[in-house]
């Protein structure tokens, strides 16, 4: 399917610089552009590529002013990256999608299946489960007994939604993610550890995206809750009875221990670890590999382990690198002081 510069500009409310009849049928990074491709420029580090790119159309921010001649047709917009996202969503929506239930799928007779749903081969929809309209279930997905999946949701291959759990509308769950596995609850006894039954559920509200092989455990009692608009990367662990506030984002390998409450619009970089039974405020930003051992106020930015103010962490990191030399110097000073003491005592 082809789109002209004129059609694209009308859709994203942009201004054309060049040939309004230039057409594209695919996307490409600006440094790997080919004829018929649409690219974008938002990071100044990539500006030099625009003068030689082979892409037919390039989205740029309104304040971009070229220093040399450009072959490509430009479309100026308020935010090139956001405009690209809109166009990619339009492109994805235009692709043909399957509907219906594959003969090799297993769907319980009392499961409720909405309109225009696709259920792929070897998917299993168990008794009492509910699937909303326009939801797309890839092969080998399991939706457990009495679980509910909303409308316009995508479950990629090997997603598992345990019994009684809830997934909202417009969600995306990537391959291998698990919603509602048992929380890590064990009671120590003389004979080892006795398992504590996890009788709660896990709830994903609307517009949530869960990365591949990410796990959201069910609650011991009550619910583990992922609020509206949360985006979780691959390989993240959300423990039992955690609540993640709306529109919070977490990068890969973040781990949240049990019963912790995280506020709205927080940002956790990769490999952040959060202790259990604490509260993180709203709009908190945490740098990669940081550890949060206690409650954190809203609007805080943290880095390090234990997590502290980023400026303090940077100064500490500089000192840390000098510690071996400082240790050697301290040893020399101690020996000199001992010598001085001996001389003074004579």
Automatic annotation (TrEMBL):
The active site is at residue 240. It catalyses: a UDP-3-O-[(3R)-3-hydroxyacyl]-alpha-D-glucosamine + a (3R)-hydroxyacyl-[ACP] = a UDP-2-N,3-O-bis[(3R)-3-hydroxyacyl]-alpha-D-glucosamine + holo-[ACP] + H(+). Residues 22-88 form the UDP-3-O-[3-hydroxymyristoyl] glucosamine N-acyltransferase non-repeat region domain. The keyword Transferase applies. SUPFAM superfamilies: Trimeric LpxA-like enzymes. Transmembrane segments: none annotated. Pfam families: Hexapep, Hexapep_2, LpxD. The keyword Lipid biosynthesis applies. Keywords: Acyltransferase, Lipid A biosynthesis, Lipid biosynthesis, Lipid metabolism, Repeat, Transferase. Its EC number is 2.3.1.191. Gene3D superfamilies: Hexapeptide repeat proteins, MurE/MurF, N-terminal domain. GO terms for molecular function: UDP-3-O-[(3R)-3-hydroxyacyl]-glucosamine N-acyltransferase activity. Pathway: Bacterial outer membrane biogenesis; LPS lipid A biosynthesis. It is an enzyme of class 2 (transferase). Catalyzes the N-acylation of UDP-3-O-acylglucosamine using 3-hydroxyacyl-ACP as the acyl donor. Is involved in the biosynthesis of lipid A, a phosphorylated glycolipid that anchors the lipopolysaccharide to the outer membrane of the cell. Belongs to the transferase hexapeptide repeat family. LpxD subfamily. HAMAP family: LpxD. Homotrimer. NCBIfam families: lipid_A_lpxD, PRK00892.1. This is UDP-3-O-acylglucosamine N-acyltransferase. The lineage of its organism: Bacteria, Pseudomonadati, Bacteroidota, Bacteroidia, Bacteroidales. The gene is lpxD.
């Amino acid at each position: 399917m082809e789109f002209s510069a004129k059609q694209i500009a009308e859709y994203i409310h942009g201004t054309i610089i060049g040939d309004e009849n230039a057409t594209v049928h695919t996307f490409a990074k600006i440094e790997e552009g080919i004829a018929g491709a649409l690219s974008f420029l938002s990071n100044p580090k990539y500006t030099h590529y625009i003068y030689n790119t082979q892409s037919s159309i390039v989205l740029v921010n309104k304040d971009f002013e070229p220093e040399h001649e450009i072959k490509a047709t430009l479309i100026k917009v308020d935010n090139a990256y956001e405009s690209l996202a809109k166009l990619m969503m339009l492109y994805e929506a235009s692709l043909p999608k399957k509907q219906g239930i594959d003969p090799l799928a297993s769907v319980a007779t009392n499961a409720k299946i909405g309109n225009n749903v696709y259920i792929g081969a070897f998917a299993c929809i168990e008794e009492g489960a509910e699937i909303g309209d326009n939801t797309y279930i890839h092969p080998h997905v399991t939706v457990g007994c009495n679980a509910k999946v909303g409308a316009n949701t995508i479950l990629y291959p090997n997603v598992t939604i345990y019994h009684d759990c809830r997934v909202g509308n417009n969600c995306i769950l990537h391959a291998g993610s698990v919603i509602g596995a048992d929380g890590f609850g064990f009671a120590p006894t003389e004979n080892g550890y006795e398992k504590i039954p996890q009788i709660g559920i896990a709830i994903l509200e609307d517009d949530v995206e869960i990365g591949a092989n990410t796990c959201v455990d069910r609650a011991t009692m009550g619910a583990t809750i992922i609020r509206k608009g949360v985006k979780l990367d691959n390989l993240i662990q959300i423990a039992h009875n955690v609540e993640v506030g709306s529109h919070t984002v977490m990068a890969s390998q973040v781990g949240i221990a049990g019963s912790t409450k995280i506020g709205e619009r927080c940002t956790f970089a990769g490999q952040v670890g959060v202790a259990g039974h604490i509260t993180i405020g709203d709009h908190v930003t945490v740098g990669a590999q940081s550890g949060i051992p206690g409650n954190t106020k809203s609007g805080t930015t943290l880095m390090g382990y234990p997590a502290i103010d980023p400026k303090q962490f940077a100064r500490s990191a500089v000192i840390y690198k000098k510690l071996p030399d400082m240790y050697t110097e301290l040893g020399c000073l101690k020996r000199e002081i001992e010598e001085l003491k001996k001389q003074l005592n004579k």
